[in-house]
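Many introductory courses stop at the sequence. We go one step further.
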Amino acid sequence: MSRAAAGGRRAGAGLVGHGQAGAVVGRGRGRAAQARGRGAVGGPGGGSAAGQRGAALVLSLLLLALLCVLVSQLAFSAKVDHDLAANARDDLKLELAGRSALALVRAHLRADWASPQGKQVDSLREPWAEQAVAAPMLVGDVRVTVRIEDAERRLNVNLLALEQSRQFAARVLADLCAYLRLPQADEVAERIADWIDTDEQGRFERGARNGPLFHPSELLEIPELPAEALLGGVDAEGNPYPGLLEFVTTWGSGLLNLNTMPAELLWAVLPPQDANGRPIDRDAALQAILEFRTGAAPDQPAPPSSPGAPPPGQDFENVDALKRIPGLADVFPPPATGGAAGGAGTGGAQQPARPRGLREQLTVRSQDFLVRIEASHAEQLRRYEALLRRDEQGFRVLLWRELVR
């Protein structure tokens, strides 16, 4: 072989070797680039730390949210507990203020009882019934208002359950419903009478209690008795009328006080005829009674009282004083002779009890006093009702309760 051919082969072999070496170097550089690319994307090298930092951030946010919920719940529970404690404190404060006002009422009634006139007569001209007692007062930081009523100024509906008083009470109730112009007045009076009286004779005896009530509000339980008849309403002409609950009670002695009865009940108590059968002008007699009690002419306000002087007007000192009113000279029938027990002509047999007349249903003294108290503090308002009974031992609290609005 010639030297030229041999040199050519050696030159070709050298070029091949250099080409293979370049390829190896190129492949190495490509693998390094790929490795760097994988590391940047998140390979097992530097990408692992970045992922852990992201998970820690999410976990921290979750813990912070949970902590916010717990703190909010704790703050809400603390506020609820604080409000409950404040309400309990205010309830106690308001009740104690109400009981303090009741003690003041008892003091006024004791003072009236100790006066010479107080043991004989109870009237609206006495200190316990004056507006000074009902004026708002402060007990600490609690504002208290008081209203005092004697139970004997109202008709005791439980008289309907007593045989001796049933006839009188039924007549007064019917006349009162008519005077108030209640819708279906006759039916309203009859439903109430049948609900309470102890017999079973009447149109509305079905399901009746046939017994006395504890509280006047129980009249609302009478079926088909319109609530407006008890609570008041508006007639067809748009004129308001009061309800029966303003004039009836279930407490007291059962007698009616001539000095404290409201005008509507006074009119109903007066009989339509006197003992001689002559008609009584009840409207004129009512105006005369009111003028006697207040010292004011009909449809005029009572004159103001002088400082230190008793209020104007007069009190009925006894029941027979009613006969001094014009037109009422013969309002009472003559006393019945004989007792309830049978005499010789009956063989000693027990006779039925005689129905009580008007004179026996009236009085000038009161036994029970109903006290209504309102106590308010900030936005809290409580209403209480108490019943005081006066006897020889003093004044006893028969009832104390909070009225639910």
